[in-house]
């Protein structure tokens, strides 16, 4: 099969190769997927670059956790009826050497989730990490129907996923952006209130819009930078879900008294550590959201597999708004 891979960590152009590798075969409990679309996430870049000093997990890695395609073979213990199923894939490369940046990938059967007929492979490839992370941030502490949510950085992949899922679930959603182009993405995702974090005073706008009550949940992309703002915006007994750190050694200066007086819960979310039952619940919720036609993330760029290094560089630039996709053909 044709695949992208790297044998050492480094810059995209220096280490990513594209070539012919042996077709993988599914083992017990696994399925093989003919990948139609793969997508790039920051986690793929960090693994490739050796972020935080993390070493190569395997001697050779086919990158990318997320993708979508068609099951074309199943291993022992998996029903033959799954052959031909359209699926979206999550965590293809978690604890395994072979991700979705290839014509075929093999994953544990539960990581290949049926893709509703009304949903394209492109959207399927956007789900994985952003959608599962956003779901955990929003729902780990209970239902959000009728609640108020603030999504910091709503034009990011996780941020947009959070807006889409929160709106689908019946919440009121405010979000922050930094550029007019980002506002379009947040608006298309359904945000009720869009706040420019460069020019607006976020707490003033949020408090006015919520009648002084504040928001029940904050989905936070940069806790260290935004903790003061978050504490001004959060409602009493609210939850701040933090899923990212700007750098590996980041420390957060948490004003303990302010947090205590509002009885705030600060939850940290790491998608790979979400408990199995919560992940199952998230997959079911995402399926319902997809069936309702309510999951439409922005797609920024598409690259052929041969140009995977350019796809990684595009994601790394931070300039694109929306998901970067890679296709094997
Ligand atoms: N914990 C987990 O399990 C998990 C899961 C997924 C992703 N992540 C991490 O989360 C981060 C974002 O991932 P992503 O895929 O969503 O990336 P992305 O698509 O590049 O989005 C990042 C967004 O965050 C915004 N942003 C940056 N600093 C901000 C700030 N101080 N306040 C508000 N918004 C800010 C950016 O806007 P500007 O362009 O205006 O800066 C951008 O829209 C990455 O570091 C990734 O590794 C962690």
Can you tag this structure with a few keywords?
single chain; 329 residues; alpha/beta; Quinone Oxidoreductase, Chain A, domain 1; seven-stranded mixed sheet; six-stranded parallel sheet; 11 helices; globular; binds NADP nicotinamide-adenine-dinucleotide phosphate
Furnish the topology, listing elements before pairings.
Blueprint: E1 2-5, H1 12-15, E2 17-20, E3 30-40, H2 42-49, E4 66-74, E5 86-89, E6 104-108, E7 112-114, H3 121-126, H4 128-139, E8 148-151, H5 157-168, E9 172-177, H6 180-189, E10 193-196, H7 202-209, E11 215-220, H8 223-233, E12 234-242, H9 256-261, E13 265-268, H10 276-291, E14 299-304, H11 308-317, E15 323-327
Parallel strand pairs: 8-9, 8-11, 9-10, 11-12, 12-13, 14-15
Antiparallel strand pairs: 1-2, 3-4, 3-6, 3-15, 4-5, 5-7
Helix pairs in contact: 4-5, 4-10, 7-8
Bound molecules: NADP nicotinamide-adenine-dinucleotide phosphate (NAP).
NADP nicotinamide-adenine-dinucleotide phosphate binds at residues 41-43, 129-130, 133, 152-153, 155-159, 176, 178, 197, 221-222, 225-226, 243-244, 269-271, 318.
